[in-house]
């Protein structure tokens, strides 16, 4: 009986939640994405790249695809930092790209290391921006504090604009 229960537990897939997001950069640049997180991780206050089971991003310029990246392309050399607040449903922004308040999705602090061909996203202390073919796309840059919302998949189109963070949290992060 115990063996049967153990086999059933092993054979039963863990449930997971799917999320979608859309980032609107400057000058016609946009990124859309999707990630999957095991349900048992969603009670944590902050999730990291280690908690994500699947992840995919695709970039556009004036609605024309310019590149994509997913976890199957992850190597030891890849810049890969993700922070996700599942309670506020946002990717924290404004801090160092490799910190809990930053993002480095196949693009490090200089956003020039996404591969060629390649695509990546960076949210650090300078800005939020894209990397295409190992080139930092400065025309895509927006304010580092721009809110980056996340939505449960199937709940409608993701917000692809965001607004600068308002309130004490954002003010505390801004340099004097």
UniProtKB/TrEMBL annotation:
It comes from the Bacteria. Keywords: Signal. Residues 1-16 form the signal peptide. This is Uncharacterized protein. It comes from Salibaculum griseiflavum.
């Amino acid at each position: 009986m115990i063996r049967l229960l153990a086999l059933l537990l092993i054979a039963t897939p863990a449930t997971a939640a799917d999320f979608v997001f859309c980032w609107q950069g400057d000058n016609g640049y946009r990124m859309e994405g999707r990630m999957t997180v095991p349900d048992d991780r969603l009670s944590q206050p902050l999730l990291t790249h280690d908690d994500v089971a699947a992840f995919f991003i695709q970039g556009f310029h004036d609605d024309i695809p310019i590149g994509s990246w997913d976890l199957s392309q992850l190597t030891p050399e890849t810049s890969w930092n993700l922070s996700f607040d599942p309670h506020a449903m946002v990717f924290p922004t404004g801090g160092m790209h490799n910190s809990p308040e930053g993002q480095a999705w196949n693009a490090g602090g200089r956003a020039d290391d996404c591969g060629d061909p390649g695509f990546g996203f960076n949210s650090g202390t300078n800005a939020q921006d894209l990397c295409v073919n190992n080139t930092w796309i400065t025309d895509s840059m927006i304010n580092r504090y721009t809110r980056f919302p996340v939505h449960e998949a199937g709940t409608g189109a993701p917000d692809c604009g965001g607004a600068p963070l308002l309130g004490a949290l954002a003010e505390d992060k801004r340099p004097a």
